[in-house]
Amino acid sequence: MKVLVPVKRVVDYNVKVRVKADGTGVETANVKMSMNPFDEIAVEEAVRLKEKGVASEIIAVSAGPTAAQEQIRTALAMGADRGILVEHDGVLEPLAVAKLLKAIVDKEGPTLVILGKQAIDDDMSATGQMLAALLGWGQGTFASKIEKDGETLKVTREVDGGLETVSLKLPAIITTDLRLNEPRYASLPNIMKARKKPIETVKPADLGVDVTPRLTVLKVEEPPKRQAGKKVASVAELVDKLRTEAKVI
Ligand code: AMP
């Protein structure tokens, strides 16, 4: 079966994010960008399914600027077979991405789409669910285990305070949680091989999708700076300050 893996270009998780001086968003110029960590887990899972003989081809898709090719190349170096870049400069909301992915699913006919549970830049956690709705497919979100069970997939989901196991009819959508696997590092020979793998570039208009944003971001703010702490000489002084200054007891 063909597996489609959407990978998003985001600010690297090690970078301390800075808000732009005019408060319109976060600084991305001269900042290290990487593949969204949950998408690395999705690529790893697809590659493992291919190694087990369950998946036949893995297609990595990214919607974003030309530079998002780098994240597709990373997916190719990890073991994806080919890539598709939906080139677009500017904001792409989850519904727009879900519509782009639906158009690619209609064209490519994958049996499984594995997305990250959330992109760490906007924290929307919506694209996979919206894609499932647009396609009318079943979904196993926040997956921590995926097993092929005859013609279905058994997906263990991380839910509040425990685990839930669901059986999905194929075709289906899966979104990955942190504990699903530990993604591999691409080896140098595989990075070299990935350079020769094909990446097709299309525009949203080629897919017939209008990606005009529906929301306007009014303001982005840094969290308030923490006040410096105070040292106290004794427990009695601490209790006194909690009572008279902090007024919490
Ligand atoms: P979100 O709903 O924005 O939190 O993103 C959830 C998942 O959807 C991500 O982990 C990706 O797998 C996928 N996704 C979101 N935006 C994009 C994008 N621009 N290009 C490719 N995949 C995306």
UniProtKB/TrEMBL annotation:
Domain Electron transfer flavoprotein alpha/beta-subunit N-terminal residue range list: 23-211
Entry-linked SUPFAM superfamilies: Adenine nucleotide alpha hydrolases-like
Oligomer and partners: Heterodimer of an alpha and a beta subunit.
Claim: Heme is one of the keywords in the record: no
Protein function: The electron transfer flavoprotein serves as a specific electron acceptor for other dehydrogenases. It transfers the electrons to the main respiratory chain via ETF-ubiquinone oxidoreductase (ETF dehydrogenase).
GO biological process: carboxylic acid catabolic process
GO-annotated molecular function: electron transfer activity
Cofactor(s), by name: AMP
Keywords: Electron transport, Transport
Family affiliation: Belongs to the ETF beta-subunit/FixA family.
Pfam families noted in UniProt: ETF
Origin species: Neoroseomonas lacus
InterPro entries on file: ET-Flavoprotein_bsu_CS, ETF_a/b_N, ETF_b, ETF_beta_N, Rossmann-like_a/b/a_fold
Entry protein name: Electron transfer flavoprotein subunit beta
PANTHER family xref list: ELECTRON TRANSFER FLAVOPROTEIN BETA-SUBUNIT, ELECTRON TRANSFER FLAVOPROTEIN SUBUNIT BETA
Domain of life, per lineage: Bacteria
CDD domains per record: ETF_beta
